[in-house]
Design a protein that fits this description.
618 residues; alpha/beta; Spore Coat Polysaccharide Biosynthesis Protein SpsA, Chain A; 4 domains; 9-stranded mixed β-sheet; 7-stranded mixed β-sheet; 25 helices; 43% helix; elongated
């Protein structure tokens, strides 16, 4: 879009005026934004809509390029849209705009806001009304003693006209210069602004006013009750006692208390995206319930942002491109913002965030995907490519829940067959319980299944990224590795007529299994010669590792399994997960040796290796 005009701030660069309404500005919000992605995050729009609902005039300043779609949406919300050179922090954006607007001297109230928080968690109009009727001159949501001095935390600051008309206000912004060092910005401008205003006699109104109710005893109690906080904070709290307040960032340390006790309208975004902060302040497993129980804020906005950040951090920033595939110009999964009203769904997030691209499908793949659809299993084909490595591959994300537990054996077998036909299937499950059910029923290895929340938690992001990177590295191998860990079924009693259940012939010597491949195909035991070869490979592996060991050694293994809980003692010894009927397939064979051998401890396996070596040397 063509700018209406521009101005060049001497310290913070060129500012383009993209849009301006001829309205009188009285109660104004100056909103500073910078986004890593090409599209403005949805949580920012929610914030801007709440600003408009509260009756405030919005001046939106972006230090990122504004795309056409965002421009169209922003014109319905903002009075002025400014696209600024990416120079300086939020203070740089506010400063450039204030200089251009004669420091806001004509405004009745001014709010300095930014996109570093999720919220508002409660109506912004209530905050504006409360501040406008208060006797104080300056509003803050939280204040802090951390750093070199007391200050209002700058993610949300309100100011009345008597402050805006004062010479000290103009002098502060007129004297501001560009600093690359973030600590200097905090010291000179965030802390400096509060110091200048208080020194000039202006009074501050802190909405949460947490420090009047939380002191050393409450901090000590909070730390002592928490295993995470105890490890990181207890010694410091006991040593510093009342002075611990000078080390605490309240918007991080007291995020729960601020929402539950003090009805804070915001929660800091950094708590969700930095692994150190996420773990240090106990975000895992608590934030979602607390926000849902104590606020009206749509939690899916946070999750959508976290997915978006994950896609950027581990794909775009590392020169990976991710594309949502469509067939005959119809997306496999379409989504809109209403998709999240009941519960968050990863595929809906990807449907909003990733651009679609057409794909050609073979009839076999189309049939396979239709089988998944008939089983009510959501799927989403993606193409991931790397310009740097000049490689690309197609993978299919599948969202499978605990509902597979009601599927009959024939449907489960059909799903397993489909998973083997699809190149690079990536199975995503909602939680750990579902993972256990899905992996057991579909003969999948646990670590091959991804939890939906692993896309959202900073400490788990690397695991998911490594999973996709390994797919890219091994993209030439179209066979799925999901079934490499044995889990279902049992070894076929014997692959030949002269073998007993142990896999040995009547003389106790090793017999190599040979099966008529054509007959096996006729019996639908194998989908391909590769399946048959996989069966033989597994059988030969365990004959070498296990079947050549002495009988007493195998019996000792059964006792160990009872002690470990891998075998139940009822009237007879029976392995957990043992099926009533087995076939000579790779899956069945693999699981037999899983329950017979793989569940046993490492020392037992090493002993077996020594016994086999001794037998060979005799």
């Amino acid at each position: 879009m063509k700018p209406l005009g521009q101005f060049n701030d001497k310290d913070f660069g060129i500012c383009k005026i993209l849009f301006r309404k001829p309205d009188n500005l009285e109660h104004v919000c100056l909103f500073a934004s910078h986004t890593f992605s090409p599209i403005l995050p949805e949580y920012v729009y929610y914030y801007l809509e709440e600003i408009k609902k509260s009756g405030l005039s919005l001046i939106f300043i972006s230090s990122s390029l504004i795309c056409d779609d965002d421009y169209k949406r922003l014109t319905g919300l903002a009075n002025i849209i400014i696209e600024k050179e990416n120079k300086g922090t939020d203070f740089g954006a506010w400063c450039a705009a204030l200089r251009w607007l004669n420091y806001g001297k004509a405004f009745k109230t001014l709010y300095l806001c930014n996109d570093s928080v999720f919220g508002p968690l409660s109506p912004l109009l209530d905050i504006h009304t409360k501040f406008y009727s208060a006797n104080e001159d300056v509003l803050g949501i939280t204040d802090s003693h951390q750093g070199v001095g007391y200050h209002i935390q700058s993610y949300f600051v309100g100011l009345k006209n008597n402050v805006l008309k004062d010479d000290i206000w103009e002098k502060f912004w007129a004297g501001m210069t560009f600093h690359k060092d973030k600590q200097k910005v905090i010291e000179y401008y965030e802390i400096g602004l509060t110091r200048v205003l208080r020194d000039a006699g202006f009074r501050c109104f802190i909405l949460t006013d947490w420090s009047r109710q939380i002191g050393f005893p409450e901090i000590l109690l909070k730390v002592s009750k928490s295993e995470i906080l105890r490890t990181k904070w207890l010694n410091r709290v006991l040593y510093e006692q009342k002075d611990i307040i000078f080390d605490i960032n309240p918007s991080s340390f007291f995020w729960k208390e601020l929402i539950i006790q003090f009805q804070s309208p915001f929660i800091k975004r950094e708590l969700f995206i930095y692994e150190k902060l996420y773990e240090e302040y106990e975000m895992d497993g608590e934030w979602e319930n607390i926000i849902e129980q104590h606020t009206s804020y749509p939690v899916w906005l946070i999750k959508l942002f976290l997915i978006n950040r994950f896609l950027y951090k581990f794909f775009e920033i590392k020169n990976f491109k991710i594309t949502l595939l469509s067939f005959e110009n119809t997306p496999f999964f379409s989504a809109n913002h209403n998709s999240f009203q009941e519960e968050f769904f990863l595929f809906a997030a990807l449907g909003l965030l990733v651009k679609p691209s057409p794909i050609e499908m073979t009839s076999q793949v189309r049939i396979s995907l239709n089988q998944l659809k008939e089983a009510n299993i959501e799927y989403l084909p993606l193409k991931i490519s790397s310009d740097e490595e000049k490689k690309s591959f197609v993978c299919t994300l599948l969202y499978i829940t605990h509902r597979v537990a009601v599927f009959d054996h024939s449907l489960l077998s059909s799903i397993k067959t489909t998973l083997k036909r699809i190149a690079n299937p990536v199975i995503i499950v909602p939680d750990k319980g579902s993972r256990s059910i899905v992996s057991s029923l579909l003969s999948l290895k646990d670590d091959g299944l991804i939890l939906q929340n692993e896309f959202l938690i900073p400490s788990e992001n690397n695991k998911v990224a490594s999973f996709f990177k390994s797919l890219l590295t091994n993209s030439n191998d179209k066979r799925s590795s999901l079934f490499q860990r044995p889990t279902l079924a049992d070894m076929a009693k014997a692959a030949t007529n002269d073998e007993n259940e142990s896999g040995l012939n009547n003389n106790g010597s090793y017999v190599r299994a040979e099966i008529n491949f054509k007959n096996a195909l006729n019996e639908n035991l194998y989908n391909s010669r590769e399946d048959y070869q996989q069966y033989l490979n597994i059988k030969n592996k365990y004959f070498a590792l296990y079947e050549n060991t002495p009988t007493w050694y195998k019996k000792a293994g059964q006792v160990i399994k009872v002690l470990k809980g891998n075998k139940r003692l009822i009237v007879e010894l029976k392995d957990k997960g043992k099926k009533d009927k087995y076939f000579p397939t790779a899956d069945d064979l693999a699981h037999w040796y899983y329950i017979q051998y793989e569940v046993l401890p490492r020392w037992y396996k090493k002993l077996g290796t020594l016994l086999i070596k001794r037998k060979k040397n005799k």
